Structures are given as C-alpha cells and as structure tokens.
Amino acid sequence: MERTLSIIKPDATRRSITGKINAMIEEAGLSIIAQKRIRLSVSQAEEFYGVHKERPFFKDLVEFITSGPVVVQVLEADNAIPLYRKTMGATNPSEAEEGTIRAAHAESIEANSVHGSDSAENAVIEINFFFDQDEIVG
Ligand code: GDP
What we know:
alpha+beta
C-alpha cells in the first residue's frame, strides 16, 4: 500500500464541495486515513510550496492557499500517488480529462480545488508536514 498527501483547496471549501470531492476520492478506490480542516499561515504556505518560489505565480499561489480553510488528508491505496494524480486531472482544468475532480470542480489553473503529492519522496515529506503518526489511522 502507498500513501499520498491531498489538500482540498480554499476554492472548494468556500463552495462547500468537500463532501463531493471526498466521494470522488473514495469512488476511485482511495481510503481517507487521516483528515483535518486547517487554515495555513503565510509562512507554512511558503514552506509547503517552496519548490515554486522562483515561479511568477508564487505570490498569488501563497495568497490563494491562505485565503480560506483547507482540508488536508492522507490517502491510501495501491499506487495511491499516480492513482490520485489521475483522479485529480491536469493542473489546468481546461486540459483535465472528463470525470476528474478538476474537470468537474476547478475554477482556474490556480483555484484548481485539490493538491496531490507528485512523488513517493514528496508524499513522505508532505504527510509529515501536516500529520503526526498518531493522527493517521490506516
Ligand atoms: P499540480 O502538481 O498539478 O498541483 O501543479 P504544480 O505543482 O505545477 O503547481 C502547483 C499549484 O500552483 C497548482 O496546483 C496551482 O494551484 C498553481 N499553479 C500552477 N500553475 C499556475 C499558473 O500558471 N498560474 C497560477 N496562478 N497558478 C498556478
């Protein structure tokens, strides 16, 4: 079994569609084995998105992800990392395949409703960023 870090972003919590997104996650065969609703501070967001700090959209991204509550989750399945990336769809919702979370719910390339870890190495780092071991119940 593999684990990945998911974030339901502020555009989705604002529209009260976390339940709809969780249904899509579970229908894809991913188990939600940890979950909490939090508000990221600017410094937490800058650290979490550190790999993007040279990108032109970094400031906007930090502003967006701190603009409201997020739901952080640990998802578990065989091949959870690629499975969740496929379930989310492409970063830009106009390029996301039909049936994906982003095709169904994202508002824009920035306000794209969900985050999912992109590698096994980053999944471990990102899960440990938000969760203690005793908060994860597999
Ligand atoms: P992801 O792995 O599909 O989430 O995509 P990336 O790692 O490339 O980007 C991280 C996040 O930055 C995305 O999910 C978007 O919220 C945001 N983002 C990516 N590209 C752009 C862009 O061109 N403009 C803006 N404003 N935000 C972007």
